[in-house]
Specification:
Elements: H1 2-8, E1 15-19, E2 22-26, H2 29-46, E3 57-59, H3 67-70, E4 75-77, E5 80-83, E6 86-89, H4 92-114, H5 121-132, H6 137-142, H7 145-166, H8 174-180, H9 194-216, H10 226-237, H11 251-260, H12 267-287, H13 291-299, H14 322-333, H15 364-384, E7 389-394, E8 402-409, E9 412-421, H16 437-456, E10 460-467, H17 474-489, H18 500-529, H19 536-550, E11 555-556
Parallel strand pairs: 3-4, 9-10, 9-11
Antiparallel strand pairs: 1-2, 5-6, 7-8, 8-9
Helix pairs in contact: 1-2, 4-7, 7-9, 9-11, 9-12, 14-18, 15-18, 17-18
Length: 559
């Protein structure tokens, strides 16, 4: 077919474009008619293929009657024709209307299904993140931003409505809505905003396709009119972004620059990251006004903080019930963990400190459950990787000091002690202005408490410290690496489809968020029932007594 495509336009003023079995002839009507006749003749004589004339359409130029092609029995159109999943048209309103209607046909049913309460929230979220947002990227790349503006706005609104339903979110302020569309690595949920993506998608597609357009369509002649205006409007909107690739603002310079040297793949990602980087800076500036908000945002920058969001529920240790997943999402966004609950049972107002429930000292007993959830996950992983492990080991002669567990890794006994620290708690919020600042303090406290005693028994000690936002201390990651090495050495990797260390980190991240959910639910239950009213001093006394004896049992950062 390549030879037929090439021979069709020879000795005519036409050009052609072919993508697999789609073939386009571009040129004056009378010349296009000649090329069309030649194409039909070559197909019949060389291949025996028959042309489906009902599917062949002609987009006539302005002012042309198309008499040369009308006699061929072809479908003549003056407004638009379909082309490779989109349309070709000179009318912006036609393109805008078509894109919106096609998007509704393609996505509305899916959006409704995603909101069905029978679908687990964890599964629904993964479907949104991995399939919904990327599905319109092709249209954003092939139609200029003025044509896709309405499509992007409507799609983003439906996306927000779906996410609000899936995650059971309250009304979100602008900052939380922005965080929702941030990449997971930047503290967001990885839900791509069509409105933020539209300009990077189209201008990068132009920069990458310019060489073909440069040589094929205009033979090096500078374009004029609407195309130049669209390029200049888009590049002006992206002016000042912090990125390596320079985008010329002048349309003709843009044409010459990328016509001779097309942009490399990855340009859309580069521009989009720069756009999102600016949005992130705005979120940080607003968060700086509130110490706990800033500590939360810094905590979410840790690589491990979003691993529970990327965990595929293909294993028991990676599954989260709806209430756990939804509460974890609320905590990540820094919004109220319970609609209608204005204050904690201890009296702390929750409107300005919604994450107080994760560190309230009156919930230490439930924090122990969170601690035990993480410990039981580590012990389960030890069993899966064929590592010898034991829970709660005494390390002093009096039997007063004991660590959470003993793991035999690389032939040596290693004591571990688990602690989940809340960086937004009053006692840690200042340190948490630096990444993993709260975890580092807690690691030091654990080392000071246990390391010397453990060394007497010629064993290693690892404080397994995790922040409630998901960040893992360096010592915790060291233990995970050791478990991975043991799994590989023991050939015990059949339980994971990918990297062993990533599976372990995700399992631990899920356990932390499930534990956070336990603490939050208990706090909400008590706040609604006011169980502590009149007995706060008694509870506080019990908590202090327990802390003197053993510490807060994994409830680091209580307030």
């Amino acid at each position: 077919m390549v030879n037929i495509y090439n021979d069709t336009t020879k000795e005519t003023e036409c050009l052609f474009a072919a993508v697999q079995d789609d073939y386009y002839i571009i040129g004056p009507p009378e010349q296009a008619a000649v090329a069309w006749e030649k194409f039909c003749s070559l197909c019949k004589s060389s291949t025996g293929l028959k042309i489906n004339r009902n599917k062949t359409q002609i987009l006539l130029p302005t002012g042309s009657e198309g008499k040369e092609l009308a006699n061929e029995g072809l479908v003549l159109k003056r407004d638009w024709i379909p082309a490779l999943g989109t349309i070709l048209t000179r009318n912006d309103k036609t393109a805008e209307k078509w894109l919106v209607e096609e998007s509704r046909k393609k996505h509305d049913k899916m959006f409704e299904l995603l909101k069905d309460k029978k679908m687990p929230a964890q599964v629904a979220y993964i479907l949104v993140r991995m399939s919904m947002a990327p599905s319109i990227n092709f249209w954003l790349r092939t139609s200029n931003p003025s044509r896709t503006a309405k499509l992007a706005e409507e799609f983003d609104q439906k996306l927000l409505t779906a996410m609000t339903s899936i995650l059971d979110l309250p009304h979100l302020e602008e900052v939380a809505r922005k965080q929702l569309v941030m990449p997971i690595s930047k503290g967001g949920f990885g839900i791509r905003s069509a409105s933020l993506t539209a300009k990077p998608a189209w201008i990068s597609a132009m920069a990458q396709a310019m060489r073909a357009n440069y040589s094929l369509l205009l033979r090096g002649v500078h374009p004029t009119g609407k195309w130049v205006k669209n390029v200049e409007k888009t590049t002006n909107a992206l002016k000042g972004l912090k990125m390596k690739t320079h985008l010329p603002i002048d349309g003709k310079v843009f044409w010459d620059t990328f016509g001779l040297h097309p942009a490399e793949s990855g340009l859309q990602r580069e521009i989009t990251e720069a756009v999102l980087g600016e949005e992130q800076e705005k979120i940080y500036k607003q968060a700086e006004r509130n110490g706990t908000d800033y500590a939360r945002m810094v905590g979410l920058q840790c690589k491990e903080s979003g691993l529970w969001l990327t965990a595929m529920p293909i294993h028991t240790l990676l599954r989260m019930r709806d209430v756990s997943f939804q509460l974890a999402a609320r905590a990540r966004l820094g919004v109220s963990l319970a609609t209608g609950v204005k204050s904690c049972a201890c009296g702390v107002e929750l409107q300005s400190t919604p994450l107080h429930l994760l560190s309230c000292r009156h919930l230490v007993a439930t924090m122990n459950l969170r601690h035990n959830k993480v410990l039981s996950t580590l012990l389960a992983i030890a069993g899966m990787t064929l590592v010898t492990a034991r829970k709660e080991v005494t390390i002093d002669d009096e039997g007063r000091k004991r660590t959470d567990g003993l793991f035999v890794v690389k032939g040596k006994a290693t004591m571990i002690d688990v602690s989940i620290i809340c960086p937004t708690a009053k006692s840690y919020v200042k340190a948490a202005r630096k990444s993993l600042g709260a975890a580092l303090i807690r690691e030091k406290q654990k080392i000071d408490k246990y390391d010397k005693e453990v060394k007497k028994h010629e064993m290693d000690f690892i404080p397994f410290v995790i922040e409630t936002t998901g960040g893992m201390g360096g010592k915790a990651k060291r233990l995970i690496d050791q478990l991975m090495d043991e799994a590989l050495a023991n050939n015990a990797t059949s339980f994971v489809p990918d990297r062993v260390d990533l599976f372990i980190k995700r399992a631990v991240a899920v356990a932390v968020q499930i534990g956070n959910g336990m603490v939050a639910q208990e706090g909400i239950r008590r706040a609604r029932g006011r169980k502590w009213k009149g007995a706060i001093s008694e509870v506080r006394g019990k908590v202090k007594k327990k802390e003197r004896r053993r510490g807060p049992g994994g409830g680091g950062g209580v307030e």
